[in-house]
Amino acid sequence: MTYALLSHPAALGHETPPGHPERVARFEAVSAALAAPDFVDALRVEAPEAARAALLRAHPERYLAAIEAAAPAAGSRALDPDTHMSPGTLEAARRAAGAAVKAVDMVLGGEAQAAFSAMRPPGHHAERERAMGFCLYSNAAVAALHALEAHGLARVAVADFDVHHGNGTQDVLEREARAVFCSSHQSPLYPGTGMEDETGVGNVFNATLPAGAGRAAFERAWEERLLPAIDAHAPELIIISAGFDAHRADPLAELRLEEADFAWITGRLCDLAAKHCGGRVVSLLEGGYDLGALAASVAAHVRVLKERAG
User: Is the overall model pTM greater than 0.85, yes or no?
Assistant: First the structure.
């Protein structure tokens, strides 16, 4: 069984204002990392645009219409102080969500054991009816709901190790008992959510980490709280919100992780996938804003997915 890498040049068309951390150069850095000889054996797939039906599982029609109406014909439009649209943003965001859906289809259809989407913009801050934190569509939640509704799965898990809490994923999934959402994140930090008493319908598990926390605290959060929650749920698919901004070099936060830590958590999630769902993993790029750290961390993450799919 192989592993798939999903991407599309439309990600280059999502342009943000000068100095914005979620910039075109992120996609270029990740693409260069995944062009290395290590990944020559990957199944390369162009990300399609998400079908409206897939987006509607996570967002109401009025929200989709509002995002479409906000798309500028030229220049830039701010949806909030952090979240901007350019003329190419709508296609890029639709293809980022579409990559998540396509990855689910490929993994559940037996075309690949694991799949990684290198698309931008990210998605885990996009709430049901609110774009925020660089995100327009809730890609991981779209993927989870597609797996449940289109493929008839009974249980899925979303694991989020981005340094920021995935408030959007939680907002969409917190009433969906078939989906478990598990997140480790620095706190206090944007967006100010993700406390451990936020539990949804018993399907939300948050683990907060203080500024300066490193490998030991990160591993403890996952081993003691988050991995056991996924294990108990026995998911038929694991979806990863793969943010790499907990890296010590990242400018937007203050955790102290390194590439080896992202490889470790990827391996542990693959262990649970092997136990419960035939090794089936879908991973979606979220944050990571130091270009060198992002490229190296993505490579470390995908290398583990490759090894487990071999």
Answer: yes
pLDDT (tens digit per residue) in 114-134 = 999 999 999 999 999 999 999
Alpha helices in 209-279 (DSSP H): 215-221, 227-233, 259-276
What amino acid is encoded at 160 in this protein? Answer: D
Copy the structure tokens of residue 157: 């898990």
The average confidence (pLDDT) of the chain is: 98
Q: Is position 185 annotated as part of the catalytic site?
A: no
**What are the tokens at 82?**
């952090």
Nearest-angstrom CA–CA distance, 302 and 298:
6
State the residue for tokens 């995100």.
Answer: 135
Catalytic-role residue among 125, 146, 164, 276: 125
- Decide: 106 and 4 in contact? Cβ < 8 Å: yes
Q: What is the pLDDT of residues 80-111, one digit of tens each?
A: 999 999 999 999 999 999 999 999 999 999 99
Q: For 167, what's the count of Cα atoms within 13 Å in the CB-facing half-sphere?
A: 21
Look up residue 154 and give its DSSP letter.
Answer: S
